[in-house]
Amino acid sequence: MALCHSQVTSSPSPATSSGSSTSASAQASSPTERVILKVGSVEVTQAEFESGVGQIEPQADPDKDGPSGKGRRKLGDDYASVLMLSQQAVASHLDASPEVSRQLAIARVQVLSDAEFASLMRQADPTPEEIGKYYSDHLSDYDEVQIRRLFIWKRQGDAKDARVLTTEAARARADQVRKAYAAGADAKKLSADLMKAEEGMLDPEPLLFTRGELAPNMEKVAFALREGEWSEVEDTPAAVRVIQLVKRDRRQLGQVSSVIEKNLQGQKLEAMLDDLKRKAGIWLDEKYFGTAVAPVSGAQRRISNPPSQLQKSANKGESNHENESQK
Questions:
Q1: Quick check: 2 and 52 in contact, CB under 8 A?
Q2: pTM for this prediction
Q3: Does the pLDDT of residue 57 top 80, yes or no?
């Protein structure tokens, strides 16, 4: 599109065709005035080249060389070749052919669509006051907890004759671990001993979770506990699961303002697009396109804290024990 613009807006003149003019242009200090490339009668300034080359070479940087990029001279040669070929296509009246005309029309629609979407995005930018109000209205969404999980496997080992614990025995073993920890035993050693004996798992360090990151049943218990308190989450055929609330906290506005800004912008943008669609009178033939798809909720599970290696191991261990218990 930048090349087409150059073809349309640039034209030869006596002033630019003379040798003295070319020399003066080459010495111009302003990138918008300095002509650095000519193809026939079309002149391209430094500013036009640097802004347009990215349309031809998306990863291009005229100021960088290297194995992943092209030198400035190579980019200039490529730009000149594209401009030359586009001029030849116009001279051959290829722009009037049905296929090229269709592609040009599609390109124009896409460019205009992108420009309007960018304009709507700017209009949808929330104000600091809107961000602050959203935070105040959704304080509980930004609560977070540090918890320590203790799981005791009911089926110990993979052998067919492996010992299977009753719920009472598993709870008793969990109580032993909790009492040892309360008495000052090192959590890392307790965790290692449990894993080595294949009796269960204990988080050696507390894990941080925000709302939406825990399983619903575990989240309900975790956010209801007092700091330091333990509680059983569930008793399954595979394990007894217990957690301790180590600390409760809340992320401050400065920590989440960028996320809130994106959410609010998305909500505003969606509303603006819906309004435009209604005014535009859009209609789709359902016999051809099918019925409308239900919109996806904007609220999504937050994954701001990716699982640690310990969490992955714990999940794998739980899965293995659950599989064994079902055999």
A1: yes
A2: 0.61
A3: no
